[in-house]
Amino acid sequence: MGIMGGKRGVVTGVLNDRSYAWFIAKQILEAGGECIYTFLPDEKGKMERRVRGAIKKLGDEDPWLTPCNVSQDEDFNTVFDKVASDFGSIDFIVHAIAFADRQFLQPGKFHQTTRQAWNQALEISAYSLLAMGQRAPDVMPDGGSIISMSYYGGEKVVPGYNVMGVAKAALEHTARYLAFELGEKNIRVNTISGGPLRTLAASAVGGISEMFENQERKSSLRRNIKGEEAGKTAAYLLSDLASGVTGETIHVDAGYSIVGV
User: Fold this and answer.
1) Which end of the chain has the lower number of beta carbons within 10 A, N or C?
2) What is the percent of the chain where pLDDT is above 90?
């Protein structure tokens, strides 16, 4: 039995087989865990079909999959009520959700960010973690683990990352506050700051090609990371191997974040 044997939890943010959430789910499954999933609903059902297709590549032909628009409290309530009804309790939550209006994700455009774009980015990318943390104790009566995904642009200026960087900074500190308050319930909260991957979200960031080039040229390992590497760290943080780790931001970026200009 692997390190995730006997553990079940919610994975959000699977879009395709190149997304961080997909690699995390893959490692959880390989380590003996069970994943249940959410997706962003749309009128034509395109997103559900896309997510089902990605999960199928993980070997799950009939996954537990339910819609969740993270900008709606009613959706959160419905999802967590359904989780409690169908499973009673869970052991982990993977928060791998982020969004910002791509017209403001261009070098030199941060100062033009509108109030609407700012609020939308922080609501979807950061407040959604808090919303999950609010509901976690009801489905984690014996404790558990929550992880979220961040990027170095939440710590330092990365031209083009812009308002998403602000949202990631809020996300990382939200994780720390949740870790402090949920600790008495034996719920751990950590963040993985991953290197850039060629995901749908990354494609919206202006200057992304330069980010990849800088990663390969300046990181300690002189390369980009693989999705599996973030997935392995996630499995560790979600398992009992990390039972004493909470409130941390762990960099899985081939050592890019330790190097000065």
Assistant:
1) C
2) 90
Q: d(Cα 92, Cα 186) in Å, to the nearest integer?
A: 12
For the domain spanning 8-255, the CATH number is 3.40.50.720
The residue assigned the tokens 């819609």 is 67
Average pLDDT over residues 221-242: 97
Amino acid code (one letter) for 29 = L
**CA pair distance 93, 12, nearest whole angstrom:** 8
What three-state secondary structure class fits 80? Answer: helix
pLDDT in tens, 166-198: 999 999 999 999 999 999 999 999 999 999 887
Q: Considering only CA atoms, which of 172, 185, 184 is closest in space to residue 247?
A: 172
Q: Going by C-beta distance under 8 Å and a sequence separation of 6 or more, which residues neighbour residue 184?
A: none
Domain spans of the chain, in order of start: 8-255
The pLDDT value given to residue 1? 77
Active site residues: 151, 161
